[in-house]
Amino acid sequence: xxxxxxxxxxxxxxxxxxxxxxxxxxxxxxxxxxxxxxxxxxxxxxxxxxxxxxxxxxxxxxxxxxxxxxxxxxxxxxxxxxxxxxxxxxxxxxxxxxxxxxxxxxxxxxxxxxxxxxxxxxxxxxxxxxxxxxxxxxxxxxxxxxxxxxxxxxxxxxxxxxxxxxxxxxxxxxxxxxxxxxxxxxxxxxxxxxx
Length: 195
What we know:
By secondary structure, the chain is mainly beta.
């Protein structure tokens, strides 16, 4: 189901399921990240659901989240359910640009940084335009994830886009190997909303 206008990047509370028909095939991204072949095959056909809640709490003076209210920081809690496969995970990350170390079943040990940014700060013209059409607040989530063992970096933008005349939550990922000069791999994941 398309996302209602009441849902925006600062209000993602709810359940979101991957829409495989509208999403790109993520196999190239997974291969670059070193995800084993058999795991990639399971993921190709598995259902993926995100249960998201966001909470606002008081922050200390070291917060670097320039888009949040002074003295507060938003934390995003994501429970990811993958069926079948047993690759479920649960993360909590503040949207203040401060890195968090975590271990995820598919990706191993990573450092993840989340923050809000204005759509005007997106360098890719087509991507910026897509988010400006779909995000009522003109804000997206900028995610950077690093895996030093597997030597990859992923830059992901979360926001809303209009697709076939309907509004969807999307995650646009640009993933690259740090030690290789190969072209980065991109993929867009599109999510249906369930209350």
